[in-house]
Amino acid sequence: MGKLTLDKMGLTMPVMAPIYGWSRWRGKSHIKHYRNLEIAMVVFEADEDAVLDILPPDVEPANSPPRCNAWVSRAAFVNDGIGGYDELEIVIYAKYKGETYAYVPKVYVSPCPEGSRSEIIANGEELGGCQPRNAWITLESDLGQMIGCVERPKGKRLVTLTVQPEVLCRPEDIPMGEHHPGLLLRYIPNTEAGKPPAVCELLQFKYTWAPKINFAYLGSGSLTFDSPSDIDPLYKLGPTRIVSAMYYAVDTDIPQGIKGCTLKNYLEDWKWPTSTS
Amino acid sequence: MGRLTPDKMGYNMPVIAPLYRPPQGIVHSFRNQEIAMVVYEADEKAVLDILPPGVEPTNSPPQLNAWIARAGLVTGGRDNPVGGYDELQIAIHVTYEGQRYVYIPYFYISPSPGSRSDILGYIRHVRGYPAKTAWITFEKDLGQYIGCVERPKRKRLATLTVQPEVSCAPEDIPMGKEPGLLMKLLPNTIEGEPPSVCELAQFSYNWAPKADLSYQGSGTLTFDSPTDIDPLYKLAPTRILSAWYFVVDADIPQGKVVKNYLEDWKKAPTKARKRSS
Question: Under a CB-based contact definition with an 8 Å cutoff, are residues B102 and B92 in contact?
């Protein structure tokens, strides 16, 4: 009989050579390390109706009108079997039971450098629930501005984000970090057809956050969701007002969750609809 | 408050614009999938080390299939917009509770050249394939088909060749007669907790090799550059039994759970798991 007993299995599949999470076999916790993560970020306001449509029950916008971040980032190095990637992340500042969080409805990723591969999709979906999709993402510097572009499929421009870094700022001026824990809806489908998902839960995640003191800039920015598509309906969160823009580099560590990070298990509290659509 | 109630959530993440659609009958459809396959024997101890409890090799010595395949057209309409990809699949002929299966311990995928594919999330989270990303090529040269797998690029994990020599009947191909068996494990968000999903999942499939494109021939399979990150080399052939080149249409509906290991997991040691080898 097979000898691959449960105590010998890795953190994830393939269980004898996992796609990520080798740190565990070294007796350490699985922690994603980002070093010199380069971020061009625009803070903006969006339509309240559109935001409410994509927030889970009991979660509400922290501001009125709702305030969001969009960033395009470049993580050239990520440890533990994952590999570097560029990313578009959208964040909605939201409240759940009185606490303020950075709710992440969508992430797009693209291996970095171009021409490489990354396993972030599996890690992001399985452990974090950060809902990543593949896209073609670029982050470049041109004419004194940083420009991030997201296409999916190639040639279909979903997002253009620009930031012109103008004045140095303090790291604490950047509206991200430990004081804004992340909030995610983690959803894993069932193996069997017609059954409720295997996982449907609201998670908070905490992270260390250390922007570089001499590499944090405020400036002017723009954000456009250029070519609308209901397959990737980012355009519904189109900015009604740009609040601020910044360009910075940060070291950040994202550990696996700890006890108490599951804020709500929707499988227990909800009568699941009979048809998934 | 947020309005994204369960009845409005998509079938997977991002729940507001899911990566793939809910299954409606047939989920995963291949058309004209081109396959070069080698059937071989491997070391029994190495095979037992990677089979889950209760699963045993059907043959002694164990019999395996390795194939490299090119799926240019992967459809299901909007059910399954995953995009084309190449794959390396290793399958072990096994028996579980008296029923014969092909158990898949390793599965590598590579988007078709110049493209991106969303197959990784789909195949891991719905089906439980132990999929990892790699660099796979599948070419024809000097009358042979040659498939190569590298991970990372230039680290040659596998080389498979098939020289098609004589046409054969589709039913001669030793694949498609037994359902597939997968060890589906998805980690918990919370460190130290049992996985969210830990189950033995079976899948059946319709399998129609093309009568005019089914060939038997000579073949080779080498696991060229060993690494314990991807320890395919432990399943190296001790004897090549046969080699095949064929083109197939296949439809794979959603699977079925045959064993849920979570109950067993609760009884497993709680200390950090150590690598057994």
Answer: yes
